[in-house]
Write a structure and sequence with these properties.
The protein is mainly α and about 210 residues long. Helix content is about 70%, strand content about 0%. The protein folds into two domains: about 45 residues, Orthogonal Bundle (Arc Repressor Mutant, subunit A), CATH 1.10.10; about 140 residues, Tetracycline Repressor, domain 2, CATH 1.10.357. It is elongated. The N terminus is likely disordered.
């Protein structure tokens, strides 16, 4: 009497028969959904479970935790960049454009609070500086160009100044946003107006220049 054949084992990390294969976009979408629901300290194992796959599948399609953070940061930044671009489109008054940019930035963080904390905190690793800097790199690139336009930069020296300005603005917005998300002691509109005053008139508060 012949012995029954042993079921064929699937390779580790591969979906079992009948399961829908996943790709990078699917894994990141599941990660976003989980982070929004559960908070910014979810594990890679939890992300894999949310996607209905094993951890090796996540590694295969996206990578480790740093790669997931970077992928989600890119997606979040793309949305923020689109929103900021739409907010300032057609605005001729530089101060109004700055306020619209700040408000759009804060609005995006308010709606994606957990996701923002995840990508800027290294996925719960305690605020990895590289994660924050990667997020800032992507944000600052487009902002530097816009700042140069708003300031009417014509010389090479003026255009070169736009990049540190952009990092300064992003850095300010990042830490103010973390404080605001924690305290929620004022409206987004009020905070946007206060930050615009600082960015546009400076610490001297010379409103006549607006």
């Amino acid at each position: 009497m012949s012995m029954p054949l042993e079921p064929r084992r699937r390779r580790p990390g591969r979906p079992s028969a009948g399961e829908t294969p996943v790709d990078r976009a699917t894994v990141l979408e599941c990660a976003e959904r989980l982070i929004r629901r559960e908070g910014p300290t979810v594990s890679l194992e939890a992300i894999a479970a949310e996607a209905g796959v094993t951890k090796p599948i996540v590694y295969h399609h996206v990578g480790g935790k740093d790669a997931v953070v970077e992928g989600l940061a890119w997606r979040l930044n793309e949305r923020h960049a689109d929103a900021a671009r739409d907010a300032v489109a057609g605005r001729r008054d530089p101060a109004a454009a700055i306020r619209a940019f700040v408000d759009a930035y804060l609005d995006g963080l308010e709606r994606d609070r957990n996701l923002y904390l995840y990508v800027t905190g290294g996925g719960g690793s305690g605020g990895d500086p590289e994660s924050v800097l990667r997020f800032a790199d992507q944000s600052a690139a487009g902002l530097a160009e816009r700042l140069a336009q708003l300031r009417g930069a014509r010389t090479k020296k003026q255009r070169a100044a736009a990049l540190p300005w952009a990092y300064g603005v992003i850095g300010m917005l990042h830490f103010v946003a973390l404080w605001w998300l924690r305290t929620a002691d004022r409206s987004r509109a009020e905070l946007a107006e206060q930050l615009t005053d600082l960015l546009w008139t400076g610490l001297r508060g010379n409103r006549s220049s607006r």
